[in-house]
Design goal:
10 helices; single chain; 2 domains; 312 residues; alpha/beta; three-stranded antiparallel sheet; TIM Barrel; Arc Repressor Mutant, subunit A; eight-stranded mixed sheet
Amino acid sequence: MISFGSVPSRRLGKSLGINNIPAEKKCSYSCIYCQVGMTKHHCSDRKPFYDPSVIFDEVSEHLEKLAGNDKPDFLTFVANGEPTLDINLGGAIERLKGLNIPIAVITNASLLSDQRVRDELQLADWVSVKIDAGSEAVWRKLNRPTGRMDFDAYVRGLITFSEEFEGFLASETMLVEGINETPEILSQTAELVLSVAPATAYISIPTRPPAVNFVQPPNEMIINEAYQIFSEKGVNTELILGFEGTHTGFTGNAFEDIINICAVHPIREDTMLELLRKDQADPTVLKTLLYHKEIEKVEYKSKHFYIRKFRN
């Protein structure tokens, strides 16, 4: 399934997710903190995945199934990988605009050097770009771009897009202990964020199981220092550190709801119980999905999460 949720978002209110990258994760990055896990297909070449009409039909059908208080504030392209790898992204956004719900895209920004990608993202109302590092060495260590990626081209693409984009531009910087949280590195990152000039720069920390198990969030003192450094540079900065809440949208089909959300958004245990309750589903649904290895239960920071498990 392509759409999931709606799910609570720390930035967008209620977000109906759109996963326009099918099957195993395809991305130009393999970030060490990624909640979707290791990148299965490391690539930077754009390809067609779903026809825009297929995405439109599924999202429309999904919206019809949602209760009134679960209607989303945004339709958000948040994929099992990098959404701009989809060569039909622009066409999908154009079709979805007919639903009269704002469109958001969360991108790692690695393909913004491509004018076609920038033109397609111009169609969105809200775009978040990833800026985790202001130097190539840290960028490669943290985001692990595919070998063909060039840091200078990434930076030029970011700045050019920020000059062209007429919607709401946000940036997100993920802080990882021991990687990108020293004052010097934070100052470099803040300088790059400042040059991109987002309306809001979000600083976040890992709150879900990461791709690499040594990943840890920095302590509170460092998080505060990061906020102060960004703010002193003149960047409008917000922290997004907490849990989003348990309120997720539901369609009445617990199997599909769980699998679709888990593919891109690990579900915390209390959220899972709430989802089962709203779907009026028997607990055996969860046991069945675990037994058949459709999902996996993992622990992170003393909390349990359910994530999608793809067969080899």
